[in-house]
Automatic annotation (TrEMBL):
Residues 207-304 form the Peptidase M20 dimerisation domain. The keyword Amino-acid biosynthesis does not apply. Keywords: Hydrolase, Signal. The keyword Hydrolase applies. This is Amidohydrolase. One of its GO terms (molecular function) is dipeptidase activity. Gene3D superfamilies: 3.30.70.360, Zn peptidases (3.40.630.10). GO terms for biological process: folic acid catabolic process. GO terms for cellular component: cytoplasm. Residues 1-21 form the signal peptide. InterPro entries: Amidohydrolase, Bact_exopeptidase_dim_dom, Peptidase_M20/M20A_hydrolases, Peptidase_M20_dimer. The lineage of its organism: Bacteria, Pseudomonadati, Pseudomonadota, Alphaproteobacteria, Sphingomonadales. SUPFAM superfamilies: Bacterial exopeptidase dimerisation domain, Zn-dependent exopeptidases.
Length: 524
C-alpha cells in the first residue's frame, strides 16, 4: 500500500504542468530576428536539397553542400562518422551544456515529382524524390544553429552545439550505429526535427513501432530447369516458402506488429534453377522485447524454409530503430516556444495551392492550419496499435530527446508518396522551416541559459523513461552500416538527375528555374 501510494504521488507530480525556466525574452527575440534574416538562405537550402533528391547512403551532394555552409559559419565538421561516408558532425562552442540538433536528409525511391504543380508528374521518371519532405529539416536546423551561435557570442554564453544528419532514415539504418559508436556519449540533450503539416511536439511513449531490417539470403544449387530440375535446389523456393509461411503466421501475431518484405534477388532466368535468392524484411513492434521476439520468429521461419527446400540461409541486419520516447521537460519547453512563434502567416495563394493539391489528388480538403497543435502527452494520445518507425528512437534511449514537428507540408498527403513532395520546394515549405527554426533556436537558448532545464530533462530520462524499459538493440558489435544500398540506383540515375539540380546563382527559387508560376492551380 505504501509503495503504491509513493508511485501514485510520483505519477501525479509528473503529470502536473510546471513552469519552465527559460532564456530571457530579449535573447529569444534576437534569435527569431536572426532566423528571419536567414529566410532567403533557408529558401535556397530547402530548394537545393530538394533538387539533389538523394536516397539513403547516397546523400553525397546534400552532405557536401550542408557541411560547406556549416564550415563557412564557423562550425568544425567531422565527416564520415560511424563509418558512414555521408554522415557528419558539425560542432561549435566551449563549456556549458552540449546540445545535439539533427534532422534527416535522405529521400524515397521512385517518387520524383515536379514541385509547385497540383498533379503527379515526375521530374525524372523512376528517380527518387523528397516524398517525405526531408529536404527542409537540416536547413531549418542550420538556420537555428547560426541564430543561436550569434546570440551566444553576443551575450558570452558558454555552451556547445553538435549538428548531425539523419542518413538513410528511410532505411532506418544509421542512428543505432551513431549511438553504438559513441557520437552522443557526452551530449546533455538532443532536439530532432521532422516535417509535418502541423507544428507540435510531445513526450512519453510516442506510440510508434521499433523495427529490425534484415535480408535473408538463400543458397541452393543450379541445374537445367527443364532437363534435370531434380539436380537443383532452388534458392527462390526458399524465399517463396518463407514468404508463404510468414503470411500464415501473421494470424497468430499480436495486432501491434507490422511486417513487410520485398524480394531483392529472385534468380536469373527461368530455365536455370536459381542458386541464390534474397528477401528483405522489416519487422516492427512496440517494445524492445517484442521486436526481438518478432525477429526471432522470422529467423525460425527462414531456417525452416531452408530445411524444407534443401537449401541453406544466411541473414544480414540492414537497419534497426528503437521505439520513440520523448522527454517531458524538453517537450514542455519546446512547446512554449512553438506557441510563442505560432503558425506561419499563410497567404491566399498558399491556401489556394493546398486546396488544389488536395482536390486534384482526391485527398481530404483541409486548409493549411492556423493554430499550433496541442502538446501531445500520454494522456491525450489514443492507445497505439502499432505503425511506422523512426530511428531517432535510438538516440531517445541514449540521451534526453524530443522531436519538433514543423509545418512545411500540406495536410492529408500520403507519406512516402509523390503527394508529399509536391509542396516541398514552395513557399509553404519555406515558411514552415522558418517557423520551426525559430522554435528550435529559442529552445536551445533555454537549455543554454537555464541549468535546471537540463537537470530536469536528465532526471526525467533516468527516473521515468528508464523505469519503463531499457535500450536493447538487435544490432551487434560486428554489424556494419549497409552503405552499399542504393549505390547502383544512383550510379544509373545521377547523370540524368544532375540536369535538374537547382542553380541559385541564376534563379531566385527552384520553381523559377523550372518555369512554374506559384500558385499553379490546374494540372500541368
Amino acid at each position: 500500500m505504501k509503495k503504491a501510494a509513493i508511485v501514485l504521488a510520483l505519477a501525479s507530480t509528473l503529470m502536473t504542468p510546471v513552469a519552465q525556466a527559460a532564456a530571457p525574452k530579449a535573447m529569444k527575440t534576437a534569435a527569431a530576428s536572426a532566423v528571419d534574416a536567414q529566410a532567403k538562405q533557408i529558401q535556397v537550402m530547402v530548394d537545393q536539397v530538394f533538387s539533389y533528391a538523394e536516397p539513403g547512403f547516397q546523400e553525397v551532394k546534400t552532405s557536401e553542400y550542408l557541411t560547406a555552409i556549416l564550415e563557412r559559419n564557423g562550425f568544425t565538421v567531422t565527416r564520415g562518422v560511424a563509418g558512414i561516408p555521408t554522415a557528419f558532425t558539425a560542432t561549435w562552442g566551449s563549456g556549458g551544456p552540449l546540445i545535439a540538433l539533427g534532422s534527416d536528409i535522405d529521400d524515397v525511391l521512385g517518387v520524383s515529382q515536379i514541385p509547385g504543380i497540383p498533379n503527379i508528374k515526375p521530374l525524372l521518371e523512376g528517380a527518387p524524390g523528397h516524398g517525405e519532405g526531408h529536404n527542409a529539416g537540416m536547413p531549418l536546423v542550420i538556420a537555428a544553429a547560426i541564430a543561436v551561435k550569434q546570440v551566444m557570442e553576443k551575450n558570452k554564453i558558454p555552451g556547445r552545439l553538435m549538428l548531425w544528419p539523419g542518413v538513410a532514415e528511410e532505411l532506418l539504418a544509421t542512428k543505432a550505429y551513431y549511438v553504438r559508436d559513441g557520437l552522443f556519449k557526452d551530449v546533455d540533450a538532443c532536439i530532432f526535427t521532422h516535417v509535418s503539416s502541423d507544428f507540435s511536439t510531445g513526450y512519453g511513449e510516442m506510440g510508434s513501432n521499433g523495427m529490425v531490417s534484415v535480408e535473408y539470403s538463400f543458397h541452393g544449387k543450379t541445374a537445367h530447369a527443364g532437363g534435370m530440375p531434380w539436380e537443383g535446389r532452388s534458392a527462390l523456393d526458399g524465399v517463396e516458402l518463407m514468404d508463404v509461411a510468414w503470411n500464415f503466421r501473421r494470424e497468430h501475431l499480436p495486432l501491434t506488429q507490422r511486417s513487410h518484405s520485398v524480394i531483392t534477388n529472385g534468380g536469373g532466368q527461368p530455365n536455370v534453377v536459381p542458386d541464390t535468392a534474397s528477401v528483405w524484411y522489416y519487422f516492427r513492434e512496440r517494445t524492445f522485447k517484442s521486436i526481438r521476439d518478432l525477429y526471432n520468429v522470422g529467423n525460425e521461419i527462414a531456417d525452416a524454409a531452408a530445411k524444407a527446400t534443401g537449401t541453406t540461409v544466411t541473414r544480414q541486419i540492414l537497419g534497426y530503430a528503437a521505439p520513440n520516447f520523448g522527454n517531458k521537460p524538453l517537450a514542455e519547453a519546446a512547446y512554449a516556444n512553438i506557441v510563442a512563434v505560432g503558425m506561419p502567416k499563410w497567404t491566399a495563394d498558399d491556401q489556394a495551392f493546398a486546396k488544389a493539391v488536395q482536390e486534384t489528388n482526391k485527398r481530404k480538403v483541409e486548409p493549411l492550419r492556423d493554430k499550433v497543435a496541442e502538446l501531445s502527452t500520454p494522456e491525450s494520445r489514443k492507445p497505439s496499435m502499432g505503425g511506422g518507425s523512426d530511428d531517432i528512437g535510438d538516440i531517445m534511449w541514449t540521451v534526453p530527446t524530443i522531436t519538433i514537428r514543423f509545418p512545411s507540408n500540406i495536410p492529408n498527403m500520403i507519406g512516402h508518396n509523390v503527394t508529399s513532395a509536391i509542396a516541398m520546394a514552395t513557399p509553404i515549405a519555406h515558411k514552415g522551416a522558418v517557423a520551426g527554426a525559430k522554435a528550435l533556436a529559442m529552445t536551445v537558448l533555454d537549455l543554454m541559459t537555464t541549468p535546471k532545464l537540463v537537470a530536469d530533462a536528465k532526471a526525467y530520462f533516468k527516473d521515468v523513461q528508464l523505469k519503463t524499459d531499457s535500450y536493447d538493440p538487435v544490432i551487434t558489435a560486428s554489424d556494419k552500416p549497409a552503405i552499399w544500398l542504393n549505390a547502383k540506383t544512383m550510379k544509373l540515375l545521377r547523370p540524368e538527375m544532375e540536369k535538374f539540380y537547382y542553380d541559385p546563382a541564376k534563379y531566385p527559387t527552384y520553381l523559377d528555374q523550372l518555369g512554374i508560376k506559384y500558385p499553379t492551380l490546374t494540372p500541368q
